[in-house]
Design a protein that fits this description.
The structure is a homodimer.
Chain A (H helix, E strand, L loop, with lengths): L11 E8 L2 H11 L3 H4 L1 H5 L10 H25 L12 E7 L8 E13 L6 E11 L5 E12 L6
Antiparallel strand pairs in A: 1-3, 2-5, 3-4, 4-5
């Protein structure tokens, strides 16, 4: 992870893509969200989703998996260049999560994260607080998933 | 699921409890959130969490699993009493998700859901819209997880 000083407003990270196969959708649903329209093609077609639909929590966890992989990849690259790598703090939560359109079997969702606000914490001035708009977009360019994540990012210069 | 007319403001459902074992925490993290403090006791102790901590997404999906199980159980009971069972609509999203305290290995979290607002949809008057405050509380009575879910619930009397 990068330091607070190195993050710029409006900066956008491309996190990668994931194709939700019917098998993935059903496996996640059996574990965590066993509703009919996530478990059976026929039930999905007969639901408001119009097809076998991924659980919204499945979409959210795939975002998380891609975010972690992208962060670990850029950490390794920074370390290989001899740069110091920041260690992020926990996330206190997020805001305005929206499942905008169904994610159906076969859809490929591309995820991105864009920094919307950054400020230094008043109570813990060695930490910055960023808000990032995270989005998922399907293969037709339609937004399907969006939320505003809040995260703690360490300052490089802690005496600032 | 129950019909819009049968839901009352302030009504609270107890969804049940789940104990997050170290094995559960690591298995979820390997699948979806492979950060060090979710994968190793030692890394967890050395982090701000102070111990092996469950991914926030793991806490959210366990809530979902208990919600679905409780809904399916009450649907079966209602059907056994000969009552008509409502079929819910998709959730458009939620608001103000907060991971308030870490969930550490061995913690038992009890989840509940309380109806905070209910209204009839203006654009789709055969549906009601409810907002429910969902909470997770640990074995010491401390709130660890909270969010405001939004859901569509069908009206029993669609000509209303």
């Amino acid at each position: 992870m990068r330091f607070f000083e190195d993050l710029t407003l409006g900066e956008r990270r491309e996190l990668g893509s994931f194709t939700f196969t019917a098998e993935d959708i059903k496996r996640f649903a059996r574990q965590f969200d066993p509703q009919r329209f996530h478990l059976s093609e026929e039930e999905g077609r007969n639901s408001l989703f119009g097809g076998l639909a991924a659980s919204g929590w499945h979409v959210a966890t795939v975002y998380m998996k891609l975010l972690v992989a992208d962060t670990q990849r850029s950490d390794r690259e920074a370390a290989a260049r001899g740069e110091e790598v920041a260690v992020g703090g926990p996330s206190p939560g997020f805001r305005k999560l929206r499942w905008i359109k169904p994610v159906l079997a076969g859809d490929t969702i591309t995820f991105s994260s864009e920094i919307e606000t950054k400020r230094i914490s008043e109570s813990r001035p060695e930490w910055g607080i960023i808000q990032a708009r995270n989005r998922g977009t399907n293969q037709r360019g339609e937004a399907v998933f969006s939320f505003l994540a809040i995260g703690f990012v360490p300052l490089r210069n802690k005496s600032a």
